[in-house]
């Protein structure tokens, strides 16, 4: 099968998204983040390293990672890979919620894993060929996948702390969305807390306890992700990249970049 291009499923004709992982060329990292949708990474070629709630998972070809709603995860793909990513709205599973609009799927391997991967492969293949009625064929595979999820991978017994963490991350999602929209501005912890009606101490604790990171690191990661793209895809001076992505100066940007990539931005750019 030829996997040669990135595909994003249109939102207006199917009930989910499917695309090729943006880190397919390797040397790619996606820092800690979370979202409401259920996300599946199906690896067919290469290798990927996952961290989900501080636990490391190494994927080999034929394996997948299932990321639950509001699970904190990061991704590292050091080498080239072919990975199909599915993003499924949480509301797809509303008839199967266990409590507090909550549903949880296991990360453990199951005897149905091979069947699960085959469904994803067939779904992608059907979309790529675009034969008459392909959208119906894709959706038929999609519902087969949903059936496997709720019947073979859903965990019925979940502890109260997991549900509590899920609710807190729902609240944090609004805050982090605001941060992602305003990362170029001077976003202090105090001003952000005031915007959302919290004390700075309480907001700081929310990040530490439920996002497993501190506020400053989270903001630096957002800014670094955008600055990295400018560094790779433009000829802008380092200082300009820093200022346009919210860093107070080039020294602050260099410090964060070097901590992440073990190189100065200028050295990294020369190697590219």
UniProtKB/TrEMBL annotation:
Keywords, ordered alphabetically: DNA-binding, Transcription, Transcription regulation
Q: Where are the transmembrane segments?
A: none
Coiled-coil annotated residue ranges, if any: none
PROSITE patterns referenced in this protein's UniProt entry, alphabetically: HTH_ARAC_FAMILY_2 (PS01124)
Q: Which residues form the HTH araC/xylS-type domain?
A: 173-271
PANTHER family, sorted? ARAC-FAMILY TRANSCRIPTIONAL REGULATOR, HTH-TYPE TRANSCRIPTIONAL REGULATOR EXSA
User: What is the official name of this protein in its record?
Assistant: AraC family transcriptional regulator
Q: Which species is the source of this protein?
A: Dorea hominis
